[in-house]
Protein: D-malate dehydrogenase [decarboxylating]
Organism: Flaviflagellibacter deserti
Amino acid sequence: MKTYKIAVIPADGIGTEVINPGCEVLETIARADGGFRFEFTHFDWGSDYYRKHGVMMPADGVDQVRGFDAIYFGAVGDPKIPDAITLWGLRLAICQGIDQYANVRPTRLLPGLKSPLRADLAKDVDWVIVRENSEGEYAGAGGRAHRGLPIEVGLDVSIFTRTGIERICRFACDLARSRPRKKLTIVTKSNAQRHGMVFWDEVCRGVIKDYPDLDIDWMLVDAMTTRMVLKPGTIDTVLASNLHADVLSDLASAVAGSLGIGATANLDPSRAGPSMFEPIHGSAFDITGKGIANPIGAFWTAAMMLEHLGQKDAGDRLMRAIEEVTARGNVLPPDLGGNAGTRQVTDAVLASLESMA
Ligand code: NAI
Ligand code: MG
């Protein structure tokens, strides 16, 4: 029987509350399928680890997870530790260390859920946002000088490379081609950012010559936000830089009803290293420990992991189980307007999976 070795890193806050339910769901699917199984290895990295050891993960952390088939990640962030330390010390260190350059974020309105958009607009939301995940505005280049003096400066330098742009644009084009509408929107800001973003446009224009079958348009990032709200049905696959897609994808998950359902994959499309799957939300200090975190983002993430591992049927089954629960609407967490806790939502999805088996 095929065994998938999964590195599990729940990390902080509600990350620890949604990832174990996610593992339960994955085990249930594997059992029902009978053709594969999971071997989970848990890593206690994150802010508590930092408090004990002064680092978010061991120095060889990236190498420790390199040999796994996939990484299932919760969220990082602690009210008492600066975000730049927690994010760079763990999540970004893994993404960049393994060169998971394609971040993929699907958005659609699950049955039964309400969008803040008008129903006639929201029904057409079916997007995938592709985020450049290795460079751009989050390359980490820059510095601080003259600390504490009036002349103090802080610099963040965006890095756009031909290789980086070419590979993410090709990935987005291939993904758009695999979807029924064969439609791609390339997001830019080359009117104001006249070096890196102009280069982004140029390299993308070169890549899309190989995809004459795609319907491609271009949007400035600020105008893209209005299009997502006013004409959501005109959007399908979206390519954007690291920062732009970060912002657009939070808007996307709000349009879909809640940050609590958003899923994301950090892919190394070359498959030289493992890809990392995580709900898009953070550690949510305001609800940590209350048992009410919505686990659906972590479940949708698990469905993406199944597909990546070659178990698309199992991933589809998990999505159907989630949709069955949202459509019924009687067991929903508070962020979706209900009063069920994480445990009850998990049990409802597990029951739905069992009933399909
Ligand atoms: P957040 O995503 O943690 O929370 C934003 C709001 O959405 C909160 O009101 C929260 O209660 C709600 N929410 C999020 N996920 C939910 C869920 N599953 N169920 C119910 N409600 C949910 O973002 P915030 O507050 O900006 O950041 C908190 C910490 O998380 C910060 O330290 C931040 O750096 C970190 N963070 C980490 C991310 C990651 O690990 N990938 C992503 C985003 C933020
Ligand atoms: Mg974000």
User: Anything to note?
Assistant: Residues 115-256 form a domain with the Isopropylmalate Dehydrogenase fold (CATH 3.40.718.10). The chain is about 40% helix and 20% strand. The longest strand covers residues 2-11.
